[in-house]
C-alpha cells in the first residue's frame, strides 16, 4: 500500500451551497408561472465560474440527504467541479433560494435555510487540510463564519493556509459576502472578519460589505483599511460606479460596462471565478480586474447564476466589443 500525495487543486472554495429556484419572468413571485432549477450558493458558484476557465476546481460544502442534495452532487462534475468534499448531513434539508427580478437593480433574495443549513455543519475534523494547504487558490466567504461548527472549521482552514507558507502564485481569498440574515448583528460579523483577514492575502467585497469588515464605505479608504489588515490585494466593488483594486504599489479602477441587466444576482460570483483565473494565470492587476469586471457584466445579462458563468473566450470577445480603459496610479510606498 502506498501513500499518495494529496491532489493539488487549482482552486478550492468552501462554504454555501443551495438549489436556486429562479423565476423565468420578471415581477413579484406571486405572479410568476414558471421557474428554473440550478446549483447555487456563492462559494459553489465561484468554483463553477473558475472551472469554466479551465481551473481544476473543488468545493467543500454539505447538503441534505435528499433529492436536491443528490442533484447538487450529480451536477457539480458536469460543471467541471469535483464533488469529493461534498458530504451529506442527516436530518437537515438542502437549502433552496428564490429571487424576484425587478431590473435593472432590484433582485430580492429569499433563503430557505431553517432550522440550519447543512453547509454550516462543516466540522474541523472533516476538513481535507492537506488539499487545502496545497491548493493554489483557497476561497472562503464570511457566511461560513456566522455559526458553529462552520466557524471553527473556517478558522482551522485559514490557519492551515497561513502555516503552509504559501509559495509565490498561491492565494487565500476572503469574500466579504455579508448577508445580514445569517448574523445576529453586524458587530458579530466584524469581529469574525477581523480574525479571518489575518490569514487572507486577497479580500473582495462591495462597499456595504467593506463597512461591516473595516468600517469604511469610501472605496479608497476601504481598500487601504483592508491592506492595513495584511492582505496583498484589496478589491472593492462599487456597483454602478465600477470596481477598484489596490495593492501596496498600485491602484486600478474600472468603470462599469453599459449593459441591459436581466438579473444582477450571480455577477459577483462570476467576477470571483474570473478573478481566480487571473490570479492563476499570473496576470497584472489591471488585466485581471478588466477580465473579472467583464465576467460580472456578462452574468448580469442572463437569468440564472451557475449556468450563466461565461467562458474565457466569451469574456475576451466581450472585451473586444466593449473596451473599457482603466484608471491607474502608482501608490507611494
Give the beta-strand count.
Answer: 15
Q: With helices defined by DSSP (H or I, 4 residues minimum), what is the helix count?
A: 10
Structural class: alpha/beta
What is the terminal-to-terminal distance?
Answer: 54 Å
Low-pLDDT runs: none
What would your notes on this structure say?
The protein has 10 helices and 15 strands. With 333 residues, the protein is α/β, with parallel strands linked by helices. The radius of gyration is 19 Å and the shape is globular. The strands form 2 sheets. Strands 1, 4, 5, 6, 9, 10, 11, 12, 13, 14 and 15 form an 11-stranded mixed sheet that branches.
Topology:
Blueprint: E1 11-14, E2 18-23, E3 35-40, H1 42-51, E4 57-64, H2 67-78, E5 81-82, E6 86-89, E7 96-99, E8 109-112, H3 129-134, E9 137-141, H4 150-163, E10 171-175, H5 186-197, E11 202-206, H6 207-214, H7 219-228, E12 233-237, E13 243-246, E14 250-254, H8 267-281, H9 285-300, H10 312-321, E15 327-330
Parallel strand pairs: 1-4, 1-9, 2-7, 4-5, 4-6, 9-10, 10-11, 11-12
Antiparallel strand pairs: 2-3, 7-8, 12-13, 13-14, 14-15
Amino acid at each position: 500500500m502506498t501513500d499518495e500525495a494529496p491532489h493539488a487543486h487549482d482552486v478550492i472554495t468552501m462554504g454555501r451551497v443551495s438549489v436556486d429556484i429562479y423565476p423565468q419572468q420578471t415581477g413579484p413571485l406571486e405572479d410568476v408561472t414558471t421557474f428554473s432549477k440550478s446549483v447555487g450558493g456563492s462559494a459553489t458558484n465561484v468554483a463553477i465560474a473558475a472551472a469554466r476557465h479551465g481551473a481544476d476546481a473543488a468545493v467543500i460544502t454539505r447538503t441534505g440527504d435528499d433529492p436536491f442534495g443528490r442533484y447538487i452532487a450529480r451536477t457539480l462534475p458536469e460543471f467541471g467541479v469535483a464533488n469529493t468534499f461534498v458530504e451529506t448531513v442527516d436530518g437537515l434539508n438542502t437549502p433552496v433560494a428564490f429571487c424576484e427580478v425587478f431590473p435593472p437593480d432590484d433582485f430580492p433574495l429569499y433563503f430557505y435555510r431553517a432550522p440550519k443549513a447543512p453547509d454550516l455543519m462543516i466540522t474541523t475534523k472533516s476538513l481535507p487540510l492537506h488539499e487545502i494547504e496545497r491548493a493554489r487558490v483557497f476561497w472562503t466567504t464570511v457566511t461560513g463564519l456566522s455559526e458553529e461548527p462552520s466557524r471553527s472549521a473556517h478558522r482551522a482552514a485559514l490557519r492551515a493556509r497561513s502555516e503552509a507558507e504559501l509559495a509565490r502564485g498561491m492565494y487565500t481569498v476572503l469574500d466579504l459576502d455579508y448577508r445580514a440574515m445569517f448574523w445576529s448583528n453586524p458587530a458579530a460579523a466584524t469581529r469574525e472578519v477581523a480574525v479571518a483577514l489575518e490569514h487572507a492575502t486577497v479580500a473582495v467585497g462591495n462597499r456595504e460589505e467593506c463597512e461591516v469588515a473595516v468600517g469604511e464605505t469610501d472605496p479608497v479608504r476601504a481598500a487601504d483599511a483592508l491592506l492595513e489588515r495584511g492582505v496583498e490585494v484589496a478589491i472593492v466593488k462599487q456597483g454602478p460606479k465600477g470596481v477598484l483594486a489596490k495593492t501596496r504599489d498600485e491602484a486600478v479602477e474600472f468603470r462599469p460596462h453599459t449593459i441591459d441587466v436581466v438579473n444582477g444576482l450571480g455577477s459577483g460570483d462570476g467576477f470571483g471565478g474570473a478573478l481566480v483565473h487571473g490570479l492563476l494565470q499570473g496576470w497584472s492587476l489591471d488585466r485581471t480586474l478588466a477580465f473579472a469586471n467583464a465576467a460580472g457584466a456578462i452574468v448580469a445579462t442572463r437569468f440564472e447564476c451557475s449556468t450563466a458563468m461565461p467562458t474565457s473566450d466569451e469574456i475576451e470577445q466581450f472585451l473586444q466589443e466593449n473596451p473599457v480603459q482603466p484608471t491607474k496610479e502608482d501608490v507611494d510606498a
